[in-house]
Structure formats: C-alpha cells, structure tokens
Amino acid sequence: MTTTDLQRPATAPAFQHISSGRRAKNMTATVLVSAAFVIAVAPLVWLLWTVLEKGFTHVLTADWWQKSLAGLTGRQEGGGAYHAIYGTLVQGLICAVIAVPIAIMVAIYLVEYGRDSKLAKWITFTVDILSGVPSIVAALFIYALWVTTLGLPRSAFAVSLSLVLLMIPVVVRTTEELLKIVPDELREASYALGIPKWKTIVKIVVPTALSGIITGIMLAVARVMGETAPVLILVGYTQFINYDPFGGNMASLPLFMNSERLTTNEIGEARVWGAAVTLILIITVINLLATVISRLTAVKTK
Amino acid sequence: MESRPHDPRPPSADQPAKVIVRPGDRIFSGLAKSAGILIVVMIAAIGVFLLAQAVPSLIANKANFLFSREWVAGDPTNLSFGVLDLLLVTVFSSIFALIIAMPISLGIALFLTQYAPRRLARPFAYVIDLLAAVPSIIYGLWGAVVLAPTLEPVTGWLNSVFGWLFLFETGNVDRSIGQTIFTAGIVLAVMLLPIITAISREVFERTPTMQIEGALALGATRWEVVRTTVLPFGKAGYISASMLGLGRALGETIAVMIILATTSRTFGWSLFDGGDTIASKIARAAAEFNDPRSAGAYIAAGLVLFLLTFVVNAIARSFIVGKKEYE
Known about the structure:
Organism (chain B): Kibdelosporangium persicum
Number of helices of chain A: 11
Pfam families (chain B): BPD_transp_1 (PF00528)
Largest sheet of chain A: none
Domain ABC transmembrane type-1 (chain B): 87-316
Oligomer: heterodimer
Number of strands of chain B: 2
CATH superfamily of chain A: MetI-like
CATH class of chain A: Mainly Alpha
Distance between the termini of chain B: 43 Å
Protein name (chain B): Phosphate transport system permease protein
Family (chain B): Belongs to the binding-protein-dependent transport system permease family. CysTW subfamily.
CATH superfamily of chain B: MetI-like
Mean pLDDT of chain B: 89
Number of domains of chain A: 1
C-alpha cells in the first residue's frame, strides 16, 4: 500500500521548526546577555576580595576602633582609625539632621500642596539640577558661601552642609514617589472624619509611606558618607581626634585614606586598606539597618 | 464604640458651608512651602556667590580661559589659566567610559528583566546595585593599585599593534605604570554600570505584556521578542539612562584623581595620556585654596563642569519628558 494524495495535508502545518539561523541568533543573544552580567559581577567580586584581603586583618584589632594616629609617624605601626570613624559618622549625622526635615517638607509641599503650581515647578527644576550636581561642585558651592563669602573657617560642619546639597535631591525624590502612591482613599477617609489636612498628612499619609522613606534616607546617608570630594576641599586632615564639628580639622575615613595613601610604605598601605574595609563595613551595616527598620515600620496590611 | 448624639437636622445644601482654615494647617503648609522656597533661593544664591568669585579671577586672567591649555593659578598676582585641556580630558575619558558601559549595561538590564529566572532576578539586581554602594575612593584605589598593573599586557599589545591610530599612540605619561585615561575610563565604566542598568531595567520592565505575548504568539524567539518589543519600547529610557551616567562620569573626582598621573605635557587624544579632568584638578589643588583669586580660578573651572553636567542632564531628561508610557 502506498500513501495516497488524499492523506497528504493540503497546506503546510502552522507550526514550523525554528530555522537554524534564528536559533543561532537567539542562542548568541542569550550568551551575550548572560556574559554582560558576569562581566559586571567580576569587578565587584575582585574589588571586594582585594579590599578584604589587604585590609581585614587590620580591622580585627581592638586598637583600630579605639585609638587615633596621634603622635605616630608614617613609619610607626599601631594606632587606629577611631578619629576618622568618628568624623565620618558625625558628618553623616549632621548632614542627615539638616537635610531630612527640609527634604521631607519639600516633598510634602510638592505632593500635597503645590501640585502643578508655579513654585512647585521651580522646586522640581531645582531638585533636578541638584541631583545632577557633581560632588566636587557641591563642595565648591559651599566653599564659595561658607569660606569666601562668610569668611568662616573650613570645618566638618561645612562638609556636612555640602553633603546636605547631595542628600536633599535623593530624599526628596524618594519621598515624593512614595507619597504619590499613598492611595487617595486614605486621605479622603481622614477628611471625611473632619481631620485637618496637616494632621492627615502627619498621621496618615507620612506613616503609610514611612518605611520606604526611612530606607531612602538610610541609603542616602550611606552614600554621602563615602563622598571624598567635599572633605578634600572643606576640611583639613588631622591625626588627632577632634570632637568639635564647628572648628579645627577633622579626619574622616575617605580623608584618612587619601592622606595615608601618600605614605608610601607598607604601614601606610595597610592603613588605607583597613580604612576601606571599615568604610564598607559601616555602609553595609547602615544598609542592613535600613532593611530591618523598613520591615519594622512597614504598615501592617492585615 | 460610643454612639454620638444624633443631630436631627439634615445639612442644608443652600447655605455654603464656611471653610475653616485651622491654624495648624496654616503653619504646616507654610513650613512646607518655605522649605521649598528655601532650596530654590539657596541654589540661586549659591550660583550668584560662585559667579561673584569667579569673575575677578577671570578678569585678572592673562590667558584665554576657554582656549588656553596652560593652568597657572598658584600665584594670585600672575594668573594664567585656561580650561581647554582639562575639559578635553574630562569629556574624552567620560565618553570612553560610556562606550564601554553602554552595551554591558544594556546586556545586564535585558538579562535581569527578560532572561534571568524570576526567582533569581531580584538577588541578581541587588548584586548590581551593590556596585553603586562602593565609595568612589575605593574604586580609585583598586583601579590604581590592582587593575592598572593587570592591564599592562593589554595596553602594551594595543599600543604595539594599533599604535598607528591616535587612540592607542604612546601617550604623555608612562604607560607601563597604567596611570592613564585607559585605566580611569575602565574604572569609570564599572561605576556607571549600576546607574545605567537601574534606570534601563525599570523602563524595560514596563514593556506592555500584550506586546510581548503578541510577539510570542507569532512564534518569536526570546531574542526576537526583545528586539521587536522591549528594545523599541525602552530605547528612549535607555538613552536617557546613559546620558545620566555620562553626567555622573563627567563629575567623578576622587577615583580619577587617584588613577591619573599628572603631566606637564598637553593632551594628545591618546587613551594612554595622563593629565587631569576638571574635577580632579580642583580636588588636587584643594589644599592650596588660600587666596580668593587662586580659588576663583578653580571655581571658574567648576562652573564649566557644572554647566557641562547641567546640559548633559537636561538632554537626558528631554528624552523621557512627556513619555506617557513610562509613567
């Protein structure tokens, strides 16, 4: 028996095999795209490995966290980065204390009061400009204002001010986005109960968005703590501990790294990498805290 | 719940209810508004101060600020500074970094949104974001101490094989140490990856599912889905992200300062040149800001950098402004 013409399909089947050319292209794309990811991860792993390998042993000593480099020359071992750690934390803290209230109020104005007003457009424009300002230019801004115009000395406080310029746009943006997604029903329900607008904002709108806002703030703080350009321009380095942010030189981890970098011997090198590990540790801890706090403050959905 | 005393009279529609503005409302909205006004005024004031400080130095300047390649700003009585060389190095190194970072970030963004298994996409994205969390001074140290020596064979090969091309000519600093624009550009590219990826990813994720499913229903392979739906939809966002990245690269200070070797010779369009970008020049001189005239010269350079980043960021924004589908 032979197959007759009657059994042959009149038209070709709808589902054709994918031609080898298309399959090859698809394959190539998949490989390239995955390779791109690997290429990005490689320097991250390499960098973290380098930093940990060269600096981790330093951080394990108690002296590192409790002593400054007071009285030590570049050739003497010992001492610690206590003065620099203090500087980094204090400058970041002062910056946050100034920037956060302003930024949150600005975001509240943009979302709750000023929608589409002329002032709101100007503010959005300014925040846009600020978010693109390089840190070195922000430092020059404050230098022009604080040191040359007002005649005040360089200080840790001036550094904090320039960090404020870098932090405000980040926090405004995050807060604005989060306030926008708070459902209007919540506001309306509150108004319907006769609650004034400001109280609605303070007690209903902001708490709903709070967990995200806190995460945003913490991430912004972690970011400004690693900024080097402002500390280079606005404060001098010292090996001693200085608790006063308004006067005198104050070290911070980036500044510590930048000046120890110039001590070209093994001791200086070890200190640089030790400070790098410390900085990464501080940033990691802040990031983890951000996650924990945002979990704790998240609005219960049930 | 305690029941409230019932008021039998229904509210009448005829009498318009008096709008009560509570003092709390007035204070709070006043605070919010003044915070907004504060930052607008502050930025305007700072701009004025900067200009006021740059102008006297520019007047005292003996060289042409825009077209001179020399930079002598240490002696306030004899200022002679021009920004051209700094500007060229800034733009050249940033564009080199962008050329490396753009295709890789596109790949990562596509990988994270279209290729990676759903469950792994989030942790993978987190890893890429970690790149943005590393402070730039650590990138700089890594670039100068670890990466530069490793790149030496590569740069040597490029120099000997492609040395006829101006990009790979022997530069104005010692290539073997690696303190060149080539190294700086690669480190900058790594720093740009998370920035460009993060924004592109967000845009790619918003590709309408209908389009993707439509393409799949027509029998498209995964790559064809990407090429016909994701890329056309996300192109503007991707370009915008890249421009924002460029703005970041132009202003990067400390990493470039650590990596690049200074030189008195002028910039010659080679990747193996050294020199200074505007930002690194300012940072290097920071300790010498003792005289307002000298500082004014650097502030003038800072203003050029500010204008440059402003224009680049404005272009970046213009790509996505008014795009409804991205909102």
